[in-house]
């Protein structure tokens, strides 16, 4: 899971736990996007606004990706 600040393109990376929960500490405030990506699944992106002292919640459902075969 990646949090990318829209103004600076600074990225914070986190890994979800076995319940699918993730956390970013000391995230810069302002417009941002969360990118969730895992091999075998389609990437999902959501825009959010990070505010100080506010807990944001963004839930994602990933779909299985297309299979590719090389010979």
Polypeptide structure, described:
This protein is an all-beta fold. It has strands spanning 2-5, 11-13, 30-36, 44-50. Strands 2-1-3-4 form a four-stranded antiparallel beta sheet, with no helix packed on it.
In short:
The protein has 71 residues and is mainly beta. It contains no helices and four strands.
What is the H/E string?
Answer: EEEE
What is the terminal separation in angstroms? 32 Å
Tell me the strand order in the biggest sheet: 2-1-3-4
Number of helices: 0
Instruction: Name the beta content range.
Output: 25-35%
Stretches where pLDDT is under 50 for at least 5 consecutive residues are: none
- Helix and strand content put the structural class at mainly beta
Task: Characterize the overall form.
Answer: globular
